[in-house]
Amino acid sequence: YGQDRDEPLLLGSIKSNIGHTQAAAGVAGVIKMVLAMQRGQLPKTLHVDEPTPQVDWTTGAVEVLSEAQAWPEVGRPRRAGVSSFGISGTNAHVILEQAPEHELESHAASSGPVPKVVPWVLSARSEPALLAQAARLRAFVQDRPDLSPVDVGWSLATTRAGLVHRAAVVADDRAGLVDALDVLAGEDSAGGGSAGGGSAATVARGVVAEGKLAFAFPG
User: Is 162 helix (H, G, I), strand (E, B) or coil?
Assistant: First the structure.
């Protein structure tokens, strides 16, 4: 890559950012370069005082990115090669190319695809509180027909604490989600199971179990 070039090949490393990543090294490098392409910024390689003298830097136009710099527009798509070197000797290499501008613009203007199935998750400190929360959510949604099921699911998943008693209702439309909340709110807390009926398959419940602690010492 460093031969017959007008501009030098610029060399960076995800390892300088987050250290040894084991099996995630390749995908971490891909993520770094995709973000660099999107932002038009070549990120600095950290912890480099000077390039290693064990490489003959005069034989090819290759330079270490010791300082961040803008990724210039040169009349062609931005491209980057990402290598992942495995401990067993594997060298996986992929070449990334910048997406066309019209695709980037259309993606930015789009709200994205609507998922076919939407989960609503709930949690509480006790089983009665969980069932009561399901009833409150059902009433809240029924009083606000303009609410998006995706927005409700997003808010439930990202803005509420995850407590011990948990449940999820899943359906492919608003009516199905409300029906599932009916099932959940109407369950007998002493029975411990879902109510009968076809919509019961859209309700899942459980209690958080304590896991075991493990230490890993990679690299």
Answer: coil
